[in-house]
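Severity: low
Component: inverse-folding endpoint
Summary: output formatting inconsistent between runs
Steps to reproduce: submit the following structure tokens with default settings.
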């Protein structure tokens, strides 16, 4: 399972990269505009903290076919490998996905609100499919739709990986990991919410206090 961070905050990526096994970073236009940085600054800072083997995803902003393909070429030229363009699954986007894959670019189909949209993007060759789990819950059961998608891909032998996105809480992530999802992209604060169980720190504090009382120090080594 690939754990990807959904953020434009390079410092948050650096910290989680040192703590957990992180496959890469996704961004989108909203995340970048909210960061107060230019897209070039976000790319530069992120490529500083990611290793060459980690994946980086930036999104095409143009809405017309020619513009999407142009954005895709610009994005994929940002680094020699492991760079992916995110393309929303509009009709123009689906057409652009076919062209980008014919050119050998890495493609993540995004802004997916149904299993059918995702499946058709997979048929066009998209490498990753990003269903917006939490937003899909406004139209039904987002988690169930993604489970359907996993089955549709498996029975048809399509190799696209599902990278579930738009998470509000760790339970949604948990449910999809349990269902065998290939990847999730999660904001740093949601990842930390999955890591920092209050009971763990309470247990550690108990151990330290007992050790201090017995041996007068807070480390195993004297
Ligand atoms: O990366 C896109 C996706 O994660 C959107 O998330 O929180 O805006 O629904 P959100």
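Observed output (run 2 of 3):
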């Amino acid at each position: 399972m690939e754990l990807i961070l959904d953020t434009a905050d390079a410092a948050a990526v650096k910290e989680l990269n040192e703590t957990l096994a992180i496959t890469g970073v996704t961004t989108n236009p909203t995340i970048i505009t909210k960061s107060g940085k230019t897209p070039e600054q976000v790319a530069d800072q992120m490529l500083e903290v990611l290793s060459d083997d980690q994946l980086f995803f930036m999104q095409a902003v143009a809405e017309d076919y020619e513009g999407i393909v142009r954005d895709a070429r610009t994005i994929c030229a940002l680094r020699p490998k492991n760079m992916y363009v995110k393309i929303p699954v509009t009709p123009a986007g689906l057409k652009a996905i076919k062209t980008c894959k014919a050119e050998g670019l890495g493609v993540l189909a995004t802004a997916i609100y149904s299993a059918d949209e995702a499946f058709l993007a997979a048929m066009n060759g998209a490498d990753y499919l990003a269903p917006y789990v939490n937003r899909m819950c406004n139209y039904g059961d987002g988690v169930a739709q993604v489970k359907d998608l996993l089955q549709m891909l498996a029975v048809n032998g399509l190799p696209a990986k599902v990278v579930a996105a738009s998470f509000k809480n760790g339970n949604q992530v948990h449910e999809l990991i349990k269902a065998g999802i290939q990847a999730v992209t999660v904001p740093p604060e949601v990842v930390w919410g999955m890591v920092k169980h209050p009971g763990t720190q309470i247990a550690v504090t108990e151990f330290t206090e007992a050790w201090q009382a017995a041996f007068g120090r807070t480390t195993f080594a004297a």
